[in-house]
Amino acid sequence: AARIVRLGGTAEVTVRVGAKRSQLPASPAASTGKEHVEALCRSLAYYGAVVRQGIDRTDEIGDKGSADIFTENSLGVDKDLWFLEAHLQAER
Questions:
Q1: CA-wise closest residue to 53 among 74, 78, 37, 76
Q2: Is the pTM higher than 0.85?
Q3: CA–CA separation, 57 vs 7, rounded Å?
Q4: Among 12, 43, 71, 80, which is least packed by CB within 10 angstroms?
């Protein structure tokens, strides 16, 4: 939000606005823990891909500050996804 305001925009940071604008597909109802973790992995992987697109776009327009924010976020998403996927590997 601070970066948006710094660049002259208006930060709309309510849950309602976030849900309305989200590109993440809705998660299906999960009946088991494994199904829930699988759904979380799919959503997190999708989000990570969107974040990496943000890195590319902001880098192309020369906004190194925003690209750095996206990059930092991407590293966290990749780590979290790795942890979640490890739970699925444990059952094999």
A1: 74
A2: no
A3: 16
A4: 12
DSSP 30-90: -SSHHHHHHHHHHHHHHHHHHHHHHHHHHHHTT-HHHHHHHHHHHHHHHHHHHHHHHHHHT
CB 74 within 8 A of CB 52: yes
Read off the tokens for 49.
């891909």
64 φ, ψ to 5°?
Answer: -65, -35
Amino acid letter for position 55: I
Question: What's the full length of the chain, in residues?
Answer: 92
- The phi, psi pair for 23, rounded to 5°, reads -95, -5
Q: How many other C-beta atoms are found inside a 10 Å radius of the C-beta of residue 74? A: 18
What pLDDT is stored for residue 19 in this prediction?
84
CA dihedral over 34, 39, 68, 8, signed as positive or negative? negative
